[in-house]
Structure formats: structure tokens, C-alpha cells
Amino acid sequence: MYNFLLQFILEITRENAQSFISFLPKYSIWKHVVQKGDVVVDATCGNGYDTLAMVNMVADESCTGHVYSMDIQEIALQNTACSLDKSLDPHKKEMVELFATCHSKMEEVVPKGLTVRLVAFNLGYLPGGDKTVITKSETTLMGMKAASRILASGGLISMLVYVDHPDHEFFDEHWVRLDECLMVFREEYEMVEGFASGLAVNEWICCKLQMLNRPLAPILFLLCKR
Length: 226
Ligand SMILES: C[S@@+](CC[C@H](N)C(=O)[O-])C[C@H]1O[C@@H](n2cnc3c(N)ncnc32)[C@H](O)[C@@H]1O
Description:
Elements: H1 2-14, H2 17-22, H3 26-33, E1 39-42, H4 49-58, E2 66-71, H5 74-87, H6 90-93, E3 96-100, H7 106-109, E4 116-122, H8 137-150, E5 151-161, H9 168-173, H10 178-197, E6 204-209, E7 219-225
Parallel strand pairs: 1-2, 1-4, 2-3, 4-5
Antiparallel strand pairs: 5-7, 6-7
Bound molecules: S-adenosylmethionine (SAM).
């Protein structure tokens, strides 16, 4: 845990401001946990960036690793499939399975008994998609509980949580009010923090990484199963 946090801090000092905000350095943390041949879960596949990063982490020469990716929006699954088509050879592509389902139901798509090393959530809305479709704390909580059950010892739940919506202008043009959206984000953030804080200390190590001088940047929660 401490080794990969140190690596993470070194990594973000090398990243530019944009990836600082979008927390791309989370991949350097995942790489400390995920091994070739592992089974991992992308609980919110969106445009497929995280799924692609995951498949490259688990792929070995015999293509034994596996990525289970899900999203509730058909367009997100199409975007992910398109990104995989462009970037992966057919063998690697076969290592990914996409599911049109809510992450609260991940136990229905990940076969029982597998050693799942990483479950990643990137909350909020689909960039470039419908900004009114956002993750909700009730189903996110169910997803986190499911993730905590399927995760192997030594595995990681990675949660990127937003506290601000980057497109304030959008709310002037649509029926959704900014303060309502921010309230939903805040509720979800507090739920994630509450869930992580309540996990048994002898079974879990939980922490959050927050940019103190960028208060509106997303916050990364790391829940490591001992
Ligand atoms: C910030 S995006 C994810 C970005 C993605 N990880 C990537 O690398 O491009 C959040 C995604 O969560 C999806 N989502 C919202 N509620 C969900 C749920 N209950 N189960 C699964 N996906 C959900 C949205 O449709 C959206 O595509």
C-alpha cells in the first residue's frame, strides 16, 4: 500500500495539469496491484479508457487475463467497443466482455469463484454523452458492496468520485439545475466516504487522495482488501 502511494505521488509530479485533474495517475497505482493474467472489473466503462488500460495490464502472451466491463448506457458500450476495436488485436479483444447492466448486478456477470484483483468505478456522467445520466449513490453503494464481496485478498477497489460538474453552462440550457446535480454528487461522495470508513480495519486499508489546492478536482478513494 505505502509503496504504491509513494509511486503515485512521484508519478503525479511528472504529469501535466490536465491529467492531474482527471487522475490518470490512478493507473500507476493499479499497476502495483494488477498482474498479468488477472481478472479485473470496470464498473463504469464509459468511453472505454479504463477498460483499455486494464486489458493492457492483464494481457500476457497466452491472453489468460479477463476484463469484465459494464455500463447502463448502450452508447457507452458502443464507444468502448469502438475504442477496443481501434486499439487491440483480436486476441486481446477477446479478453474483454462488455455488459449492458448496472454495477449493482456485477455478481451476475462475473463468474463465482474467480480471483478478482481490481474493481474500478469512475463515477459521474459520460464525457461527450448525456450529462443528465449520472451515477447515483444508491446503486453505487450496492455496486461497492458487490465489489467488496467478489474482490480477492490483496485486491483493490478504486473509486474516482466527482464533487463538481465541469460544465456549469450546460445547466443554464437544460431542465437539470446545477445545485441539484451538485447535491447528487455530494451525496454520492459522502456515501463512498462513509462506506469506506466503516469497513473493518483488520480486513481493509482505506484512504482517499484529494488535491487540497484544487478543491473541485475529483477525489480518488482506494479500498485495499488485506
Ligand atoms: C465518468 S463515466 C466513466 C468513464 C470511463 N471509466 C472511461 O474510462 O471512459 C461514468 C459512466 O458511468 C455510467 N453509469 C452510470 N450509472 C451506472 C450504473 N448504475 N452502473 C454502471 N454504469 C453506470 C455512465 O453511463 C457513464 O458512462
